[in-house]
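Worked problem 6 (solution included).
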Amino acid sequence: MKKLLILLSLLISVGILVGCTKDVGGSADSAGSSGNADKVAINENGFPIVDDKITISMLGQKTAIQAEWEDMSILKEYEKMTNIHIDWETPPNTDFKEKFNLLVASESYPEAFFGAAISPETQLKLGLEGIIIPLEDLIEEHAPNFKKLMDENPELRKNITAADGHIYALPRYIDNTRDLTSKKLWINKKWIDEAGLEMPKTVDDLYTVLKAFKERDPDIIPAGSSGLNDLKWGILSAFGYLGTNNLNVVDDKVIYVPTTDNYKEFLQYMNKLYNDGLLDAETFSQDEQQLYAKGEHMLLGLFSHPGAFVVVPEEESWDYVALPPLTSSINDELMWPSSSGVNQGAFAITDKNQNPEATMRWVDYFYSDEGSTFISQTGGIEDVDWEWTDETKTKWRQIVPEGENLTDVNAKRTPGTGAAIPLYVKKEWVQKEDSPLNNNIDKEVIEKYEPYFKVAFPEVHYTVDQSKELTALKTDIESYVEQMQANFVVGKASFDEWSDYIDTLNKMGLDRLIEINQEAYDVWNKN
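Solution. The predicted structure is:
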């Protein structure tokens, strides 16, 4: 249970929604068409947002552990602060997509979507249909906190701008703390020391270390994996490409990595590990939980996870450190996968909204330093939900009433517990948490990875037609690449067949897949 409580601050739950159809037109000017006569004046600074209380209807997705949103202490407090009552409709997140689609199709949708994780493709579709409204003017005039974030982080604007040039939804935006929640490669430093070896700097060094692990105990699994993509996350970087996405951008040119000679070298390296008994023999047949069971018995020398203590016993997890970026004979550049920090489509305003200005001011608070702390699962009200643990205010911890656990307490406070709600997650705040395990992850990320962060492929947006065509192409191509990745590594396919593999991909429409992504990237790059 303790592991799960700590892990809660590491993991982000996100959902993806599909598009729906509605034969209407509209733009920002149509906002509030169902009753703009009731629009109230807003206060542009401070609280309350409105002097005369108003109600705004919103749809959000409730997780299984959460209390009813209208009963959450933070949302109750925010209503007092803003003078805005939210009429919540919160179907379970397991049914949310179906509910969302039904409400849109029946034209019964609310005034705003909150924590909806609306995909870029759906944002554009609903925006073109006038169901959700463009937000750029509202941001400019009524969202100083979010506007400040965009001004300070130019790529943020690019990452949330649809293919038609409009911003239809606000994201959950995560500072570099996003790499707390992403995968890291953990390696047993104690075993390295006992073998008289140094921390690996190259893939050849890593091979030597893994071989020493196997010689230490034949039951040890030097490199544990589930499907290989977890290890590819970091090891592929040594071969010159980032393993977070099959697409990389090099000098503004879109590259489909699984067709490159570098990727072939990576697969040959993993094949060598597999043949020599250094890569888990069950890599392509086990799920994550089966892999973690091996970690609980201290059988793994190297594995991938946001936090080592989740996979191996907590007391043993301190023997594991983050494996730094490596180089190889074909690449001497140190790099490590990062991300844009954007969780798409967290908040959108519909054409039914009677007070879009007040609605934008309401959500904008969550993008401020103070508001982010207030709404997040690691914050709340000072001295009620959290407290400083030192006089210099460099460390904080959450307040957990006696007899309760952190998970239950957070689930009663805020929808930010387990859901990708609209807010700014600030690096400095997260790193001030008084948690030795999480602080250790911070330290490893800052020292080992942060200087080498690199985004493989940005948050491009596609047109409706591009999205349809791309979906059809990816279905076959991605499945084939995944299948052949396994076949090459375990030896079911010979590397002499590499040209046949490339030919098959070309016949599947690989050139068109690259062309669509290049077109989308070019638009993103010009924004």
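Discussion: The chain is about 40% helix and 15% strand.
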